[in-house]
Every structure is written in C-alpha cells, then in structure tokens.
Write a structure and sequence with these properties.
Elements: H1 6-27, H2 30-40, E1 46-50, H3 52-67, E2 72-76, H4 77-80, E3 93-97, H5 104-116, E4 119-124, H6 130-133, E5 137-140, H7 156-175, H8 180-186, H9 191-195
Parallel strand pairs: 1-2, 1-3, 3-4, 4-5
Helix pairs in contact: 1-7, 2-7, 3-7
C-alpha cells in the first residue's frame, strides 16, 4: 500500500472543487439569466441529457427540477440515438451536459432536437466544442484541472455541472414561488413531507 497522506489528498480535492465553484460565480453573465428565463417560459418540458458521468449528473438535475416544480426528464444520449430522441417535442428545451462537448452521442441528437424545434442549452467546459455550436445558449463551466491525479476522471467538471444545475433549479423554484405545500405533494413519502407541515 502506497504511503500517502490521506487527509492531505482529501483536502486537495476539496480545495480544487471549491475553487471551481468560486470560478463559476466569477463567470456568471447574461446567458445564465437567459437560460433560467427560457426554461421558466418553456411550454413543454426540460429534457436533460448526457452520457457517462455527465449523464449521472443530468439525472440528478432532472430529478431536482421535477421535485421543485419544473417539468423535466432525463434522456440518456445513447438511448436518444436509438429511438428515444422521439420524446423531444418542439416546445421542449434540451439541457445537454458534457465536459468536452465532443461526445458522439450528444452531438448526434442535438441537431435532431433543433430540427424538431426544441431549444438547446448546454453546460460544458469547452466553449468552442461541437456541442456548444449545436446550442442556442452555452453555460460555460471552466475548470483548471480535474481532481483525479491523472487529470482524467470527471470530478471537478461534474461538480461544476451539478452545482450549476442546482442553481438553475433553485432560481426556477423562486420564480415559480414554489411553496412548501407543493413540495410536499411531490414528496409523499419520507421525512421531507412532515417538515413541510
């Protein structure tokens, strides 16, 4: 077993991820507000999509939106390539998540979504990516490096996307004036319900 300072390594990761979140705050601009207002005025649903670790983050963002008053669902981009893209309608918004913006699965379904008439918002670390070019709005999540010692495994990038997704969902929740009673309706089981009364 290699001799490393485990606490120092944990601290290093936490510092990198905290720095990425602080960087997101500095990066905020008009596109972020426009994205929230576009989703708020959406007449359809928000289809959140991604593959790999970004797909897992997309699932969480969709779940948070649904439970806080925004009609949303998760679409795995690979499934979208094989028929499930049919779930996207012209009044929908596709929220695509991908660090590099070069995932084949995402970049295959986004032009289809636009052809259908849906708007595309992307969350990516790469402003000049193919995914960004296929998007109506790009929410940039710049990162210096991943926390992975090899600078490969998605860690800082997925944290940045997750935090941004939470921020979008909470801004939408406030715009909707979403109340505790509505929250309780969406959470019929567990302790969250009793906390609302």
């Amino acid at each position: 077993m290699s001799d490393i300072n485990v606490l120092a390594e944990i601290r290093r990761v936490l510092e990198l991820e905290a720095r990425a979140i602080a960087g997101l705050q500095k990066n905020l601009g008009p596109d972020y507000e426009e994205a929230v207002r576009l989703i708020f005025s959406c007449q359809g649903k928000v289809v959140v999509t991604g593959v790999g670790k970004s797909g897992i983050i997309a699932q969480k963002i969709a779940a948070t939106m649904v439970s806080t008053g925004t009609l949303a669902m998760f679409l795995h981009s690979a499934d979208g390539m094989h028929g499930d893209v049919g779930i996207i309608q012209k009044d929908d918004i596709v929220l695509a998540i991908g660090k590099s913006g070069e995932s084949e699965e995402l970049n295959t379904i986004l032009p289809v979504a636009k052809k259908i008439g849906a708007k595309v918002i992307s969350i990516t670390a790469q402003l000049k990516s193919t995914m960004a070019r296929h998007s109506d709005l790009v929410l940039h999540t710049p990162i210096e490096e991943e926390a992975c010692p090899l600078n490969m495994a998605p860690t800082v990038s997925t944290t940045a996307a997750l935090v941004l997704g939470d921020a979008l969902a909470m801004a939408l929740m406030k715009l909707r004036n979403f109340q505790p009673e509505e929250f309780a309706v969406n959470h019929p089981g567990g302790s969250l319900v009793s906390a609302c009364y």
